[in-house]
Structure formats: structure tokens, C-alpha cells
Amino acid sequence: MIENAQIEQILSFYKCPCNVITSRSGGGFWDYFLQPLGGTTINKLNARVNDFTIAIGKAVTIAIENMNLIFRIKDGEQATQYNYFENSCNLDKCAGMLAIGVNPCGGFVQYNLFDMPHMLVAGATGSGKSVFLHSVIVSLAINGGVALRLIDLKRVTFSKYNGLHFVDGDAVTDAQSAERVLREEVREMEARYKTMEHYGVENYKDLPEEKKLKARVVIIDELCDLMLNRETRRSVENSIVRIAQLGRAAGCHLILATQRPSTNVVTGLIKANIPCKIAFMTSNAVDARVIGCKGAEHLNGKGDALLSIAGKKELERVQAFYISDCELSKLVEGVRAEQAPPTPPKTVKKGFFQRLFT
Fold first, then answer.
1. Ordered per-residue pLDDT tens for the chain, 358 residues
2. Residue ranges of the chain that CATH labels 3.30.980.40
3. Sign of the dihedral defined by the CA atoms of residues 344, 349, 355, 358, in that order
4. Which residues contact 33 (CB under 8 A, 6 or more apart)?
5. CA of 208: how far to CAs of 49, 68, 193, 197, 204, in Å?
6. Nearest residue to 226 via CA among 271, 173, 278, 189
7. Which CATH number is 79-333's, of 3.40.50.300, 3.20.20.370, 3.30.1700.10, 3.50.90.10?
8. Domain spanning 4-74 has what CATH number?
9. Which residues of the chain form CATH 3.40.50.300?
10. Do 266 and 273 touch, CB atoms closer than 8 A?
């Protein structure tokens, strides 16, 4: 971590004098709390961000948290230190809980998908989006109480989960099948509402014990391929909007991921009905504005993200948890081995003398 005096010296050199009141580290960030001096303004500091980055050799941002001015340095080398499995013992265990990452204070960021009740994930290639989706699937699977429906138009992200007990069917890999699956999810949601109406309850969790239902979560990796397909666009958008509007009480939830969050992919209706968003590094400022996370184009990749939660005015900076391919393969193979039916012992036919003396 850089000394406070060195930060003050760099700020003074670029005509932005400030006192460093205190500092902290956590979540892959080094934060220095500043007290501006001699007419230093936030605009002046932001105008010199690129100079600060060159002088320090690490990505720098100016942030405001709880009325405090923060000079924030991102240490990308710490990204892999926040391993999901190493920290899982300290995470909350309840159905629907998502382990999202670590904040600049070093605290764990966790939210319940059932309260969100949907999430939009955006980020350019290599920003850590797919690793985040794996951590989401592992969180939901370990905490239980959900049935996952996976749609993977890239064909390689979710195929490893095929055949596992918490996944309803194999991962869907083509647009026409994905369209059909989304229509099936809409019908399932409508059937649940009829059941709830019959028993006079307003939430699927209040159904009698004999009619208890699991929550259903549809995870789509590359929404762009569905929304830019002329044959499936209208049907897919209608199904997504209908689930987003009505799914919460019926236990039907969506997690949509895309590397191109433009207006023709994340339409106004989809954006309005999915208030919870997480933005990894985007390729340009336009994509960042579409998902309502200004500044995502300046993120540093490797799981560095901005989180927007419904009901919170301020964005939350997080370092998403990391899961390696090796650890994920071990987990999947372990689950597959546990759920495999035991092989019956082989019966050996006894010979004449064995039958005679037994």
C-alpha cells in the first residue's frame, strides 16, 4: 500500500493539494480519504485522474461515499485472492442468497435474489462476467431451494452443469429452443398463480405443505443473440417482460447477461422491469449509460464491477468472487458422483459343490 505522504505529494505536484485523513484497504482497493485544500474541487481531481494513474502505475478513480471524498486505487493483482470457496464458510446460507463479492471495506456483499427479484449482468469480453455467472449458479445450488433453467447461446459456459439435480434439463444452446423454454416458464408461472388463487394466498411460499414449490431461476448467457434474432426477438422480449413483471410472487426469477447492453438488446421495457443491475467493464460509455451505471467504462476488468440495487441511490463498487475452472470442475464432478445411483453388487453363481455344502 502506498504511504499517505506519497499520495499527498502526487496531489500537490498536479496542483490539487489535499490532506490524507486516513486510509484503508480491502476488496482489491486502496482508499485514501481526502480533505481538499486551497480551492481543490472534485472537478479538478477528476480532470487529473489520468495523470494520477500514470504517476502511480495503477488505475485511479475519485469516489464519494457517505459524504467522504475518496482517492481510490485499484490493485488488479488482488482479484484472484477473493476466492469463493475459501470465503464460503463466512457467507450467509439461505435459499436465493447470492454471494456477489467484496466491497472496498473488505466486507462481503450478499443479496437475496428473491428480494431483487431479477438481475441484469453486463460486461465486455474478459471483464469477469462468465466467472460471476458461475459463482451465482454455485451460490444458488449450495444454498438450495431452487431449480435452475440455463440458456447458453455460446454453448460452452453452462454445458458442464448438464445432468445435475439442481438443473431442470440440459442447457439450451439454440435460439428456437430458448424461445420455447421461455414460453414454458411463462405457462409455469401462470399455473402457479392459478394454484395460489385456488388456495387464497398471495405468495407461492404460503401454499400448503403438500403443494410446496421450488423457486425457478432462468439464467441466460448472451441475451444479445436472442434479441437480435428476427425470428425470436418479439416472443423472447414478451416472455422476459411478463416474467419480470409477475414472477416475484410466483417464485420465477431471471438473471440476464449480455456483453452488448445497447438499447436494441436491453429494451426500455426490460430495463424498467429489472431494477437490479451489475456492470463489469464495458467497452464504451454508451453501454454503461444504458444499464444505468455511469462509469462502468472506466472499470479494470477481472471482476471489478459496479452494483446497482433497487432502493439504493448510490452505486456499490465490488470485486466479484473468483472461481477457477479447476475448482468448478471438482465441484461438478463431486455433485455428479453423489447423485449417481449406487451400483448393485454382482451376483456370482455358485457351483455344484458350493451349493452342496452351504
1. 789 999 999 999 999 999 999 998 888 889 999 999 988 999 999 999 999 999 999 889 898 888 899 999 987 666 667 889 988 888 988 999 999 999 888 889 999 999 999 999 999 988 889 999 999 999 999 999 999 999 998 888 899 999 999 999 999 999 999 999 999 999 999 999 999 999 999 999 999 998 899 999 999 999 999 998 888 999 999 999 999 999 999 999 999 999 988 888 999 899 999 989 999 999 888 888 877 777 888 888 888 899 999 878 788 889 999 999 999 999 999 999 988 665 566 565 555 555 555 5
2. 4-74
3. negative
4. 20, 21, 22, 23, 68, 69, 70, 71
5. 58, 50, 14, 13, 9
6. 173
7. 3.40.50.300
8. 3.30.980.40
9. 79-333
10. no
C-alpha dist (Å) from residue 179 to 72, 136, 176, 231: 44, 23, 5, 9
Give φ, ψ of 317 to 5 degrees.
Answer: -85, 130
Q: Which pTM does this prediction carry?
A: 0.88
CA atoms of 75 and 238, how far apart (whole Å): 42
